[in-house]
Design goal:
This protein is an alpha+beta fold. It folds into 2 domains: 30 residues; 181 residues, START domain (Alpha-D-Glucose-1,6-Bisphosphate, Chain A, domain 4, 2-Layer Sandwich). The protein has a 7-stranded antiparallel beta sheet with strand order 1-7-6-5-4-3-2, sandwiched between helices. Strand 3 and strand 4 form a beta hairpin. Helix 3 packs across helix 5.
């Protein structure tokens, strides 16, 4: 009987340690932007949903890349909404639900792979800010959850372009899942940026080949 109680004690200790550790992650996971531009976008996204500072139930994910491609080439690839699944690991499909171009008020539907435990979700977004070639934002309130997403393309002094993808989600349902979702989403953001750059580079190279008469012959 004593050994049985010892086993119960070990299980209870492990359970409590897990719970305490999980709660600690919920409280202490904070955005750790690598660049000042990421910090600025996080602040702007928070402001857009009426939040001054991230709390335990605020999930912030951001990633950026400095690339040696023209801004117009990156924008052309990114702005082709229906082709997002070709380079974004988060998307299974994307389509316009009304006007079929980037403009304020335009609505689009995304089918997303959000990872465990959310799985696949269909979400509809409305463009709330647009500066073609430079920045796009969409924000919304859905029940207890507020969210804001910003894509930024900034020209750097060294002639490179900094692409930044930032999302802020605020609300208890997502806050409770933050320790599970944060690393999954951050990894997906990183992969999607790499995919965007690779796709834009491929398209540009193909156009240069066509221009120079060096189109690969199939077969």
């Amino acid at each position: 009987m004593d050994s049985l109680w010892d086993l119960y004690g070990i299980i209870a200790t492990l359970f409590l340690s897990t719970v305490v550790g999980y709660v600690a992650l919920m409280v202490f996971i904070r955005p750790n932007p690598a660049k000042s531009s990421e910090s600025l976008l996080i602040k702007q996204a928070l402001k857009n949903i009426g939040i001054d500072l991230p709390a335990w139930h605020t999930l912030v994910v951001t990633a950026s890349r400095d690339v040696d491609l023209p801004a117009d080439a990156l924008w052309e690839t990114w702005s082709n909404l229906e082709d997002w699944p070709a380079w974004s690991t988060l998307h299974t499909s994307a389509r316009w639900t009304g006007e079929t171009s980037w403009q304020i008020g335009a609505r689009f539907e995304q089918n997303l792979k959000l990872g465990f435990p959310l799985g696949r979700r269909k979400v509809v977004e409305t463009v709330s800010e647009l500066s073609p070639g430079r920045r796009v934002r969409w924000c919304k309130a859905d029940g207890q959850v507020k969210s804001c997403h910003i894509w930024s393309f900034s020209q750097l002094p060294n002639r490179k372009v900094r692409i930044t993808n930032t999302e802020v989600v605020h609300g208890m349902p997502l806050g409770l899942l933050k320790p599970i979702l944060y690393w999954q989403w951050h990894k997906q953001f990183e992969k999607s940026l790499d995919g965007l750059v690779a796709q834009a580079r491929t398209v540009r190279q193909e156009r240069v080949q066509v221009r120079d008469g060096r189109v690969p012959v199939e077969g």
